[in-house]
């Protein structure tokens, strides 16, 4: 395992210390490293709290700040945070208008946030994101994973909360954005959880995983490495096929790197995906390309498409000032 | 067939509780790498790491935990797991222990144990929105509860736990991260089933020692 | 070689197409993919043009936009662009106040920009960046490489040009920022130039390269993998040692990922480096952490320290709106 | 010792020029992987890729280039390299060919070739701020020029080019990317020295064919 660390026990703590020192104009570290919160809270605003396993940086701590999250709870690498973290975070940022938890759909995350909500004293609502089309949804399964589309939900609901929307509206908007968002990911290499010390899976020099999540978990299928165009084609087909007849009008396209793929290749994937999507009559009017919801050093990427409407586009465009997303201010 | 040790019907002392949780913690910590490797195959490679972190916390607080009556000790250990393990296994094992704590009397007999285990398993199912047959820890916990209720001896209970864990290998997961793999989850032992087996074995050993 | 590409011949073109489509609000692609320029040019402003081999994205195309570059010329991967590119770019963005070339100190880059300057019709000045302390400067050698510190020069001079500074002032400021900037890099893995198809070098599982540049070139020394703290210590010592007695006051710290290192580790390195620097009596008042001057998928990072003064800090803080750096607007 | 072919003192025809540049292009393209591998060891792994791109452009424009008189053909090929190769080798080989074009008469004799090569090497030194002994292409070009000036035959010139390229192996680089490696540049052949050797060999072959 080749990592820039001092020991597997202190990775998370040292990384959070660095993050909060580098962005001390935006964030404050909670006690015992339980959460990262906005430096400047806004009285009367619905508080947005997210969290999840670490190793996906900048998600979620990089999205704490004006126009997005009020707090994020970093779990151990790829492990849901614990209820005490969410309770402490909610308490630190609750401004009397209630707390909205944004939770990615993994049983661990859902159960821990659920326990926190049960223990909470204030008003709590939850939005569960499940944008990953690689996993077939079925009432007999855990359902779809929440992946990079979570960023879109956090940005859009963050803007609405900033603009004064109440808890119920924020929750409804979050569910609506999630319902209009689909993602799919692929990996060329695995990643190594520091505490595990060895790669989660291994791929031959000519293999790739189709339909991976963001935890270095194996995908749906192992296939031969394909040209970027064919990879994009399969991803776009899965995403648009899942939208079905709903897919038209304007859309946001997020090409998300998993951590080990060069920016050059991400833009190349964007070029291929965009052309395929526009050929289907959907106009890409908002774009984001980069490492936003990562899987440590995994090579690969995901595509996320959100079907826009006036409200969602307006909130996407609204000013945001976080460590990882910043515009308009 | 020997019964569960008779003195289970009297209150466990601090030493007994320490032996019990100590045994559970030791086996989890000793098998952490194996559990992680199982989770690398069909999950996200953290089950051993998670469980180890939780049981290290239990170990660190063992004197305080063992000083309590058994029901309170179980609740405290369960809360420790909830606050330290994270992931899916934290809330589930935490719920299991906390519900055992809520249901068991301070001086439980065999019937009490069977009933408390049944209640704890129901609580896990409710928390996990899961059932047996989905390739999870429940596929070990449920047959073990049934064996206790039937009055099987410790050796039989151990054997049933081992068989049950092995029986998860051919299953297709419909809950937990392994369910994302669909057909590809077949052919691997469920990490949570294995950790449940280890815990059951540790408990059997500890109880055997009391006898 | 595992890459998200359609073929080594088209990597650069498709990637630039994607980049310019994703950021069409900011940039325009020049003909024949010779350069990327700002969409909105500012009459009368000194034009800043940079460029270099590709594979370092977001450098330089990601720094084209308000408050930074007017144009960037992307060469083939790790290969200096050619004089026709610089001539075409300069012609496209020259607003009558002259053109300043920002060139990283590699003989290829220097010679190609020199030929372009010789062929140019308008007024041209050049700033050559050479911030890499890993290479000993000597009159008998090529001198130091220009690495991640180039970002600081481009940002600061870009702000000055935006504020109306003339060509001579921009050049002088660029040289001053460069003189106050030092960097040092390390690598844990190599990278693979697409057209070459195999890794440039190879490292054992327990080895690292101390003092690498940004082209997957071997470093000064191959050493055993060390803890992050010791790595940071050696890098900080090299940087501050080179500043000598000049090193005091406020500084900017840039922890730059080479492309394959997780964000989590970059913040951990930031934490370690910052503490070491502050212990030496220098106050870190500006920070930047992320993949900015990359080396394809190489794992590793560089540290850059710029000693600030009021003018440099003010220009650093000034609004910027590019694909990769954005604040204040 | 045979002299340079006598008809070098008459103007080269389009066929001869096509043969000359065709031979240079073919050898560079055929050895591109070797040149890249040399550059991976002490540079950035693109020398073969760069030179191949440049000589493919020369090949694509060969009819137009060969239609010009030799001096113009050399300038055109040099400009092609400048605009297509990039990196350090583009301006340097481009300058070499362009200066040859500026210096050689349309119907050069041996003395003209030696003088033109000397001028072209000076131009490369000026462009590269370099000298011989720094582990670069100059360490092949300079001894080859000296051999031409001394009147060596083609076989000797080839042998000198090969020896000169091999002699860069033990050198420590003080120019070019290899200089960043300091001591670690010792023990590897300079990629530009090798490409110069290949070009000299190709020219010798082509000239031999004219004879
Ligand atoms: N819904 C559920 N019900 C019962 N057990 C579950 C459920 N989800 C997961 N598990 C158990 O948890 C184990 C995984 O735990 P762990 O790896 O620590 O958490 P995570 O899956 O969040 O990484 C699985 O092997 C399975 O036995
Ligand atoms: N200043 C110089 N003078 C003469 N030759 C040089 C100089 N710099 C580099 N070279 C030659 O160029 C070769 C490298 O070319 P290439 O790899 O194409 O360019 P780059 O070094 O820009 O990647 C070296 O092997 C060396 O022979
Ligand atoms: Mg997990
Ligand atoms: Mg797991
Ligand atoms: Mg090069
Ligand atoms: Mg090279």
UniProtKB/TrEMBL annotation, chains A, C:
Leading EC class: transferase
Ranges of residues in domain DhaK: 7-327
One GO BP: glycerol catabolic process
Domain of life: Bacteria
Catalysed reaction equations from the record: dihydroxyacetone + phosphoenolpyruvate = dihydroxyacetone phosphate + pyruvate
Protein EC: 2.7.1.121
Organism name: Tepidamorphus gemmatus
Keyword annotations from UniProtKB, A to Z: Glycerol metabolism, Kinase, Transferase
GO cellular component terms, semicolon-separated: cytosol
The protein's name in its UniProt record: phosphoenolpyruvate--glycerone phosphotransferase
Pathway: Polyol metabolism; glycerol degradation
GO molecular function list: glycerone kinase activity; phosphoenolpyruvate-glycerone phosphotransferase activity
Annotated PANTHER family: TRIOKINASE/FMN CYCLASE, TRIOKINASE_FMN CYCLASE
InterPro entries: DhaK_1, DhaK_dom, Dihydroxyacetone_Kinase
TrEMBL record, chains B, D:
Keywords: Kinase, Transferase
Signal sequence bounds: none
GO biological process terms, semicolon-separated: glycerol catabolic process
Location of the DhaL domain: 15-205
Gene Ontology CC terms, in alphabetical order: cytosol
GO MF term list: glycerone kinase activity
Pfam families, alphabetized: Dak2 (PF02734)
PANTHER family: TRIOKINASE/FMN CYCLASE, TRIOKINASE_FMN CYCLASE
Name by which UniProt lists this protein: Dihydroxyacetone kinase DhaL subunit
């Amino acid at each position: 395992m080749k990592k820039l660390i001092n020991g597997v026990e202190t990775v998370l703590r040292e990384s959070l210390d660095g993050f909060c020192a580098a962005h001390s104009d935006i964030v404050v570290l909670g006690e015992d490293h339980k959460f990262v919160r906005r430096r400047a809270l806004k009285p009367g605003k619905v508080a947005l709290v997210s969290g999840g396993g670490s190793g996906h940086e900048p998600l979620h701590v990089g999205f704490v700040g004006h126009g997005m999250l009020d707090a994020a709870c970093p779990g151990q690498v790829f492990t849901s945070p614990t209820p005490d973290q969410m309770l402490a975070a909610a308490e630190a940022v609750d401004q009397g208008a209630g707390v909205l938890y944004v939770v990615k759909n993994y049983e661990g995350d859902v159960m821990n946030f659920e326990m926190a909500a049960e223990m909470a004293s204030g008003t709590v609502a939850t939005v569960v994101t499940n944008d990953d089309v690689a996993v077939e949804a079925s009432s007999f399964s855990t359902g779809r994973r929440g992946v990079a589309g979570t960023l879109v939900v956090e940005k859009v609901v963050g803007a609405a909360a900033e603009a004064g929307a109440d808890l119920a509206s924020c929750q409804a908007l979050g569910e609506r954005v999630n319902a209009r968002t689909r993602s799919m990911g692929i990996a060329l290499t695995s990643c190594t959880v520091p505490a595990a010390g060895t790669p989660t899976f291994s791929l031959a020099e000519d293999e790739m995983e189709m339909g991976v999540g963001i935890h270095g978990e194996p995908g749906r299928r192992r296939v031969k490495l394909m040209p970027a165009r064919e990879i994009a084609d399969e991803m776009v087909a899965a995403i648009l096929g899942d939208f079905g007849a709903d897919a038209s009008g304007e859309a946001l396209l997020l090409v998300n790197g998993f951590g080990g793929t060069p920016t050059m290749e991400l833009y190349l994937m964007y070029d291929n995906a965009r052309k395929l999507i526009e050929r289907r009559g959907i106009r890409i009017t908002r774009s984001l390309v980069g490492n936003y919801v990562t899987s440590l050093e995994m090579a690969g990427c995901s595509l996320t498409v959100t079907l826009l409407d006036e409200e969602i586009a307006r909130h996407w465009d609204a000013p945001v000032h976080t460590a990882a997303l910043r515009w308009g201010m | 067939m020997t019964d569960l040790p008779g003195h289970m019907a009297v209150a466990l002392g601090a030493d007994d509780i320490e032996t019990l949780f100590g045994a559970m913690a030791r086996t989890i910590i000793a098998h952490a790498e194996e559990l992680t490797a199982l989770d690398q195959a069909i999950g996200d490679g953290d089950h051993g790491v998670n469980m180890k972190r939780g049981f290290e916390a239990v170990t660190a607080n063992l004197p305080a935990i063992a000083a309590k009556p058994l029901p309170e000790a179980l609740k405290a250990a369960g809360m420790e797991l909830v606050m330290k393990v994270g992931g899916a296994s934290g809330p589930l094992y935490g719920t299991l222990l906390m519900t055992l704590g809520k249901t068991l009397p301070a001086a439980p007999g065999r019937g009490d144990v069977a009933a408390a285990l049944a209640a704890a398993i129901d609580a896990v199912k409710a928390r996990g929105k899961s059932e047996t047959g989905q390739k999870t820890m429940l596929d070990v916990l449920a047959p073990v509860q049934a064996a206790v209720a039937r009055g099987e001896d410790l050796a039989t209970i151990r054997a049933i736990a081992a068989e049950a864990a092995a029986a998860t290998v051919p299953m297709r997961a419909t809950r937990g991260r392994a369910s994302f793999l669909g057909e590809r989850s077949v052919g691997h032992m469920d990490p949570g089933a294995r950790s449940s087996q280890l815990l059951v074995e540790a408990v059997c050993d500890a109880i055997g020692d009391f006898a």
